[in-house]
Amino acid sequence: MNTPVHYGKYLLIDKVGTGGMAELFMAKQTGLKGFEKMMAIKRILPNLTEDAEFISMFINEAKLAALLTHQNIVQIFDLGHVENSYFIAMEYVMGKDLRTILQRARALNLLMSIGHALLIITKVCAGLDYAHRKKDLTGRDLNIVHRDVSPQNILVSYEGEVKLVDFGIAKAASQSSETRTGILKGKLSYMAPEQAWGRAVDRRADIFAVGILLYELITGHKLFKGDNDFNTLEKVREAKVEPTPTSLNKQVAPELEAIILKALAREPDNRFQSASELQTALEDHMSKKGYDFSTVRLAQYLQTLFQHDIEQDSHRFQVATGAAVAVGIADQSTVVRPRHSADAAPETTPSRPSGRLRTPTPSRRPAQPSAFRMTILTFLLIMGAATLISMINPPFLQNVAQNSPEVRVAVLRLSQWPALTLDWAHHLLQVAFGSPNPVSDVAVLPQPASERVPPPSIQPVPLVESDSSGPLSAIESRSQEPATRPTEITEEPDRKLTPQEKEEIRRLLKDARAAYDEHRLDDAERMFRRIIDLNPKVPVVYHFLGMITLERKDPDGAIRIFEEASRKFPDYPILHYDLGLLYLKRGVISQAKDELQKALTLNPKAPMADRARTVLQDLNRSSDPQEFRPPVADRESDPSTGTAPIP
């Protein structure tokens, strides 16, 4: 931007960058007697200002992050609304993100020292531990999980300060919360295995991501990088640390490698159980080895890497602020008049360039920021943790992906994963992005079978008895909803159920789904089989039994269950879709195509229909069936890595 512009009580000095959802500005707030404060303004893009779901997500980010006040977390100062757009005012950090630092270090062949790497990671751990332990206004644990700890979200200032940023997809779950979105978010290369599988995550997923960061900082190599997104996802799920840190950097001590490998343990129970525990281990190692804790030397390292950038940034800042003074915008009396009445507010200067934002109309707007903050404060005091639970809404994310052909094409490849079943395949297009490389940087993935729960907008009300016309008509009658809400599709039992039995089935369905979601497979199977004893004509039960069998690494058994169930319930598309994808992974292409076509024929208007058609078209065009198998070792010869969705 060539000229600084008014934006409410702030002055937008320069545009820093634009992502897929928001744009970032260097800004200044002025006040009485020459008060000035530099800030960063994150403003929603104009095309998203009318999207209620995204606005809700954006506000949730601000409210969540505003609770976090720590030296290693970028501070949020304000949430506001100006001229039909929402914004967040936050701390401005003059520096670089960790991804840029790593790229420059590789380009100049100046690998970051182990001491600098450990210093950065200990600061990240300190910020995460604070967030993980944060309580709400009523004193209850928020159980915040960042879920996107990646190089782009770690800022290092030119003075050597380390800041964690962007809690936009962080999860704050109160102890009383019963609703979960059924999706995962984060950058593929920095997910924990349970996150990549779609399981519920806790703070230990952030610890795994920190382990990835530490590995890459001290080795200069990416840990999980595949030829494509699906390959990357497979590597994350396997969580093999190859090559080892000591083989890539001879200066890495065995004790440090042990710390890294523990942070990168595939099973959460085998990792450090808190960020503070990892931080302590690293600091103890630094003390024993005599590594420097000084941020001064870290700042000197950045100055070596970015000397020209620092000069440019300083010059840009001086030019931008000078321009603000030159046009008279930085005058306190025209920028902010705190606590003044609307009548005393200055009129918008008509001589300003037409391309710039104007100060809000004085008759009403000046009082809004204060009133808005009071509203937010009151709401937080009343609702406590409840105000933090409403996270990203699947309908918005689906719309984003549907409007992006590149995202849709890439995610279609992932739809061939056999663990993704028909009723949840529609979540596969729920991809939200905010970077130049949306598919590889930010992916919102559906939960696989082990963690699927209905999204908040879908309240499952399991029906024991269906319409007399049968399950197919039940699907078609809900054409405006997800086509396969499994607990709503059943057939009449051979005998009349008593009211008590109907209630028991409803309860068992709910409890079995909860057990399945929590990966208590034995409990889930026991309850699902009890449902079969009461009513053997509940097809979704066989779907879950098949997925449980998959998770127990018995793909042959799962295929038998799906085959039997699909014969028993030929009008239930999810079973054909499950079976088709399993056949696909096994390389039985003709049978895979038959089953996918059956699923498509049963409900051609279902949310997954276009994706099923695309898979079939790709299969028909492809002469190499291997193209559609996961890019991993031969799974047929190794039962331990069979087609189970969660090893």
Could you say how many structural domains there are in total? 3
Tally of individual helices: 25
Strand order, main sheet: write it out: 1-2-3-4-6-5
Largest sheet: 6 strands, antiparallel
Range of helix content = 40-55%
Please report the first level of CATH classification, the CATH class of the largest domain.
Mainly Alpha
Mean pLDDT: 71
CATH T-level topology of the largest domain? Transferase(Phosphotransferase), domain 1
Strand content: 5-15%
CATH homologous superfamily classification of the largest domain: Transferase(Phosphotransferase) domain 1
Radius of gyration, whole Å: 27 Å
Structure overview:
There is one protein chain. By secondary structure, this protein is α+β, with helices and mostly antiparallel strands. It folds into three domains: 5-92 and 307-388, Phosphorylase Kinase, domain 1 (2-Layer Sandwich), CATH 3.30.200.20; 95-302, Transferase(Phosphotransferase) domain 1 (Transferase(Phosphotransferase), domain 1); 459-641, Serine Threonine Protein Phosphatase 5, Tetratricopeptide repeat, CATH 1.25.40.10. It is built from 25 helices and eleven strands. It has helices spanning 52-66, 98-108, 114-132, 193-197, 203-219, 229-238, 245-248, 254-263, 275-289, 295-305, 307-326, 332-335, 368-383, 394-402, 405-414, 422-425, 438-441, 471-476, 499-517, 521-534, 539-551, 555-568, 573-586, 589-602, 609-621; strands at residues 5-7, 10-18, 22-30, 36-44, 76-82, 85-91, 95-97, 154-157, 162-164, 183-186, 443-446. The strands form three sheets. Strands 1-2-3-4-6-5 form a six-stranded antiparallel β-sheet. A three-stranded antiparallel β-sheet has the order 7-8-9. A two-stranded antiparallel ribbon has the order 10-11. A hairpin with a 4-residue loop joins strand 8 and strand 9. The model is unreliable at 172-185, 327-372, 375-491 and 623-647 (pLDDT under 50).
